[in-house]
Amino acid sequence: MSNLKVEVCLTPLLYVNYRNDNSIVVVIDILRATTAICTAFEYGVKEMIPVASEEEAYEYKRKGFLVGGERNGEQLEGLDFGNSPYHYMGDHIKGKTVVLTTTNGTQAIEQCKDAYKVIIGAFTNLTALCDFLKNEGKDVILLCSGWKNKFNLEDSLFAGAVVDELANDERFTEFADSSLAARYLFQVAKDDAYKFLRNSSHRKRLAKLNLKEDIKYSLSFDKSSIIPILKDGKLVAL
Amino acid sequence: MSNLKVEVCLTPLLYVNYRNDNSIVVVIDILRATTAICTAFEYGVKEMIPVASEEEAYEYKRKGFLVGGERNGEQLEGLDFGNSPYHYMGDHIKGKTVVLTTTNGTQAIEQCKDAYKVIIGAFTNLTALCDFLKNEGKDVILLCSGWKNKFNLEDSLFAGAVVDELANDERFTEFADSSLAARYLFQVAKDDAYKFLRNSSHRKRLAKLNLKEDIKYSLSFDKSSIIPILKDGKLVAL
Question: CA separation (Å) from A229 to A30, A117, A120, B21, B159?
Answer without folding.
Answer: 16, 7, 6, 42, 37
